[in-house]
Structure formats: structure tokens, C-alpha cells
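Q: Protein A?
A:
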Amino acid sequence: MRRLLFIVLLLFFCYSYSQELKQNQRVWFAYMGQYKVSNHWGYHIEAQFRLDNQLKQNQQNLFRIGAIYYLNSNKSFTAGYGLITTYNEGVDDYFKENRLWEQYQYSKNWNESKNTIIHRMRLENRWVEKLILSNNSVVSLGSSFQNRFRYLNRNLFRLLNFKSTNEELYAILQNEVFLNVGDNKVNSKLIDQNRFLVGLGLNYNNNIRLEFGYMNHFITSTSATNVMNHTISVSLFQNLDLQKH
């Protein structure tokens, strides 16, 4: 699996740098919460805010909710709904996306349970609004439908334990590739985007994680120049078992 991931990353970087690129700087803030309410059921809440590097222009807002079914402590299925608004520089306005999503996630501890590898496979059913300028007014032409498949490979490596405070410092290495599925009007290319991230995280009692990282975010375009965003990522994760409260 690691060898396959290396090959995919190598092909991605060779492809991306062989094309004309527009490069930007971005800052992402994210909150993701998973709340277990019974042995097999829980729910997911997520909010993300994606801005330019000056923290002035909001590029995208994302809100996701979902229901989780836990097969066991390492495997789960989730299905839910997402609402996304994205800034379109050409019309100086935000277009909306309604999204259904379904995923399977599997995690495994290794190296005497010090490190963790996570595999996440997600299918997205997307309705993406198209905006144009007509007589100096923004006009919506309705929504186009697209299916997209995402595979995330996420690795956490324990670095230090702070036993006095029950905290743990760890390193993060992850990559997520987005593939368009079927006949799509939003983006006709097979590879929609790729997100490669390295960073550090602080884990408190396996309930709260705060992560800082650098993300190389490559986005393809059917009609325009491809984009590479150099992104600072700040994320807060909560994983709470409400049965204990």
C-alpha cells in the first residue's frame, strides 16, 4: 500500500508540474466532530472555512452532517449531506453546491499501537450551481450533476508523550485523491484534485486533536488553467462517546 501511494504521488507531481499552473496561498480552518450515542450509532458534524492568505477573502464555506454506523472500533460507514458555497472570481459571487456523501473508513494501529493508518473511501453525489454575468447581473443557470470518488490515506506517527497532562504529540502524513466518475459536466478530467498534507498534531486523551499542517492542493480545470494552492491547515477534531456522559 505504501509503495502504491508513492507511485500515485510521483505520477501526480510529474503531471501537475508539466501543466501550466496558477499558484495561490490559502488558509483553511476546520472543525470535525464525531459523537457516538450507542454501540453502533453516532453522528458527524463538520464546518470548514477556507480563506486567502491575508484572511480577507472567504474562498469557500463547507458544512457537513452525517449518520455513522460503527461495525467495530476500527470500521465504520457514514452517510450524510453537505452544503458548500464557493467564491467565483469571474462573477464576484458565491455559487452553491448540494452534496450527498457516503463513505467507508478503516483504521489500524501498528508499531506496538504507537502509529495509526487510516483508509477512507468516499463517494460524493454533487449538484453544483453554475453562475454567469448577464447585463452586469449574476444569473444562475441551474445545477449540474457530478459523481466523485475520494480516497484518503492518513498516517499518524507518535512522537512524544506528555504523561503529566495525558497529551501526545504526533506527526501527520496524508494524501487524498479525487476522481470524477462517469459523465460529468462540472469537470471532464479523471483527476479532479489532489491534497497532500504534512503536519503536527496534539492529541488529548484520544478525545480532542488539534492539528497544524501544510497542504499542497492541486486542482484541475476543464477549460481554465490548473491551480495549485499552498495551504496552511488548522483543524480541530472531537471524538466523543456520549454513552459515558
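Q: Protein B?
A:
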Amino acid sequence: MTFGFAPSSAVSTSSSADLSTASTNPLARTLEPAEWAAAGIPLLRNPREVVSGLYARHRPMPLTAVVAVLDPDERLLASASFKRRTAPADGWMLRNALLSQLRRVIPHDLRRRTPVRTAMLLYCREGDARWTEEDGAWMWGLRDACTLHGLRCGAYITLTRDGWQVLGEGRGGRSPSIGSTPEPFATAEAPPPLPRTGGAASEILSRVAAR
């Protein structure tokens, strides 16, 4: 299926024309796996450890999204989980939800010429690991939210009863899965490091680390 969406770099800046088109055309607010793979999404060095850490931290159930921000060494800086509304998936609405969570847990990097931190998304849902239109809407939403928050767009991972799958890469595993017992991975046990600048940003991440 062709959605008429021109793939672009994960870190490119959205133009006003692009945003105007996206706001009126739902078909432009989704990405297929081929478009996602062509966007140059950085690969996780150890996706199972990252997934296991986020699963142990948030214990997501179906319709739960976990957005996480990683530093260049793939250490977890901040994360937040929220439930998706049961309304039809729309990339614009999902983008707004992700951007709201990112703004709540970590300062933006819009002043940097090149993004340093990476945001990724773990989405827990029913069904198998094959791509769905809902996944395409999440992909579009994640990429756009990262652009607006000055972050690199990272992996999109689904978590089902069969296990986890990094969409667009073909990597996955059986554990963790929905309802499985969390494993004690470092990313789940170690508190996120605080920024060196101090002040309000440190207070925000302190609250995230304590949850």
C-alpha cells in the first residue's frame, strides 16, 4: 500500500507545509516498514537488554506505550509510560502524546546542531509481531516528536504475547513478553544519571529516577 508520504531523515526539521499537509491528511501520518528502514534509524547495540530494562521498570500491558531517552552510550536517561486511547490510531495524536511525555521528563535539545540523545518507543499490544497500520502511526508520531524535541529518532519496538520485535530490523526475542516475569537487567535497576547542569532539569530527572 502506498500512502503518498515522502520519507525523510529522522532528524530533519518539519516544514510548515509538511505539518499543514499532515494535519489534514491522515494517510500522510503513517510510515511503512520500508520507509522506516530508509530513514536511517540508529540500531540498538543490545535491544534485548534495553527492552528487558524498560519492561521491568514499567510493566506495560496492552495499549501501553513506553517512550525512553538514551544517551550516546545507550544508557537510560529518562522514560515514561502511558495508555493509548482506544480511538483509531492517528499519527498526529500519537505524536502529540509522545511529545507531551518527552517534555515532561527531559529537557529539549533544540539548540544543538546535531542531536545527541535518542528517543525510542516500546509499544505493548495484542496480536502478532507483523507490522500494522497502528504501528505505522506510532512510527510517524515518534519521528515527528523527536524532530520537535531535538532528539534522534530511535527504534520502534512492539511487545506482544509472543515476545518483542524491533520493527524494520527483523530482530526480536521471546522474552520479555506480555505478562512475563521481569528480569533484573542493569537498565531496570540503575537510576538514570542526572544532568550536570543542575537546577530544574535535575529535579525533573530525579523524580523520574525515583519512580
